[in-house]
UniProtKB/TrEMBL annotation:
Name of the protein in its database record: Enoyl-CoA hydratase
Transmembrane parts of this sequence: none
Family per record: Belongs to the enoyl-CoA hydratase/isomerase family.
UniProt keyword list: Fatty acid metabolism, Isomerase, Lipid metabolism
Length: 274
């Protein structure tokens, strides 16, 4: 299937989703918000891969939301029937939020590989991912303040899981750039690489390592980490006990141990389709 904003390939249980509009700085036009959750949910629901790598093309990872979507003459997304204010605006923002919720809600890990600038909506996007990797020339900027907006598609509730509150406030109030080394030092980026090619090669190796692990156990880890982040320790402990009580498969555990002992790849079942 072809998409306006993305190229999608799947190989060795790894799905690679690439933003493919470098001439437009990979800005997030109306089609972006429909295509991304469709791609993510198709991969997840149909168990097409065990890991997703999300990357981009050109010198800029993403310029963020295409401001043409908020034109006073066109309404949101170019639809004159959806005004740029009021209840209709709220409903449209909730739809945009759902596009990135699809990343956090999917059962498999999503790794973001970031080159160059990551502006506004791009920050909303990468903070919804499980891990983030950057090139030395990459940076993030909560750019909405520069254009008189408040970020509303996911940055604030998610970036606070990775950065101290005072630093988030500084980034939000000023719109300054946080460059790759600072993002790594503060814990937002897992690693920083010399260039795009080196980064993608390394991220694909990490994805390969994850894809070789038991998919149900990886799903359990993702679910438990997200649940533990959003709940008390007591609730999280009870939740993981119930999860393992319901989901542990002895044959998968035995295969994992035998594969390790025999120094061979494990033969694990994919997640069930849903």
């Amino acid at each position: 299937m072809s998409y306006t904003c993305f190229d999608v390939s799947i190989e060795n249980k790894i799905a690679h989703i690439v933003m493919n509009r470098p001439e437009k700085r990979n800005s997030m036009i109306a089609e972006f918000w429909t295509e991304l959750p469709e791609i993510i949910r198709d991969i997840d629901d149909n168990s097409k891969a065990r890991v997703i790598v999300l990357s981009s093309t050109g010198p800029v990872f993403s310029a963020g939301i295409d401001l043409g979507m908020f034109s006073a003459n066109n309404g949101i997304g170019g639809d004159k029937n959806i005004p740029t204010y009021g209840a209709a605006f709220q409903q449209q923002v909730l739809r945009l939020q759902d596009s990135f919720n699809a990343i956090e809600d999917c059962r498999i890990p999503v790794l973001a590989a970031i080159q160059g600038g990551c502006y506004g909506g791009g920050v909303d996007l990468i903070t919804a991912c499980d891990m983030r990797y950057g090139t030395e020339d990459s940076f993030i900027t909560i750019y909405e303040i520069i254009v008189g907006m408040t970020a509303d598609v996911g940055t604030f509730p998610r970036i606070l899981n990775h950065l101290p509150e005072g630093l988030v406030r500084e980034l939000a109030y000023t719109g300054r750039k946080m460059h790759a080394n600072e993002a790594h030092d503060k814990g937002l980026f897992n690693e920083v690489y010399e260039d795009h090619e080196t980064m993608l090669k390394s991220v694909m190796e990490i994805a390969k390592d994850i894809a070789e692990k038991p998919p149900l156990a990886v799903y359990g880890c993702k679910r438990a980490i997200t649940y533990g982040r959003d709940h008390s320790t007591k609730d999280a402990l009870e939740n993981i006990a119930i999860w393992n009580m319901s989901m542990l498969i002895p044959s998968e555990m035995m295969e994992a141990m035998q594969a390790k002992g025999q120094k061979r790849p494990g033969n694990f079942s994919d997640l069930p389709k849903r």
